[in-house]
């Protein structure tokens, strides 16, 4: 039977081997046939290296390694390039520390079959691992809502995303000139190109949220890059309003708040 699903994942030195194994198993045991493509971004710890060496014999997994750490966007683009000659219909994202529900791919494929105008979909998730984790993180379901939502928030939860493979056929890739905002930059590029978004209104992923996850989203470089992206989006989509500008200013300031305040905001304002 032809395999319609490819899943792309990047692995890093700091990843915990037990978390990676849970993530990988959650894809290998999906209710639909799939191939998992893994990009190992630079050298990894011995425990993770031993696990990956063992998995290289699995015919369902394709592993590629880089000598140096080149970043998430580069790794994902590398994998997308690798599978362009294949006949997959869907390309899905997965991270090495999250857990997909076992029917995730099947339910997302069903959604795309029912919505032929939609090109990219995500889903709700449940968070775990932090005292500010949400039992259910919800996002708007429909494209027009997501376009407006994207001014200040991210329209898709990155590791829940499934693309129609054809969206990458003409060279569209993750922008590599951003800092920790490659997913948001890609969503904006897709919206500019007229691609349609949606979200399955069900939890299809368990998202690991830790203090280090939150801390990575703080700081001047991350703040400056993200705010520049968002302001450019507001201009291109003609969404500049006084309220949006004020809220964008608050979002910039939030990148510099103490972690304890940021965690309270995560719990109360999402």
Automatic annotation (TrEMBL):
<keyword id="KW-0328">Glycosyltransferase</keyword>
<dbReference type="InterPro" id="IPR001173">
    <property type="entry name" value="Glyco_trans_2-like"/>
</dbReference>
<feature type="domain" description="Glycosyltransferase 2-like">
    <location>
        <begin position="7"/>
        <end position="129"/>
    </location>
</feature>
<dbReference type="InterPro" id="IPR029044">
    <property type="entry name" value="Nucleotide-diphossugar_trans"/>
</dbReference>
<dbReference type="Pfam" id="PF00535">
    <property type="entry name" value="Glycos_transf_2"/>
</dbReference>
<dbReference type="GO" id="GO:0016757">
    <property type="term" value="F:glycosyltransferase activity"/>
</dbReference>
<keyword id="KW-0808">Transferase</keyword>
<comment type="similarity">
    <text>Belongs to the glycosyltransferase 2 family.</text>
</comment>
<protein>
    <submittedName>
        <fullName>WbuP</fullName>
    </submittedName>
</protein>
<dbReference type="InterPro" id="IPR050834">
    <property type="entry name" value="Glycosyltransf_2"/>
</dbReference>
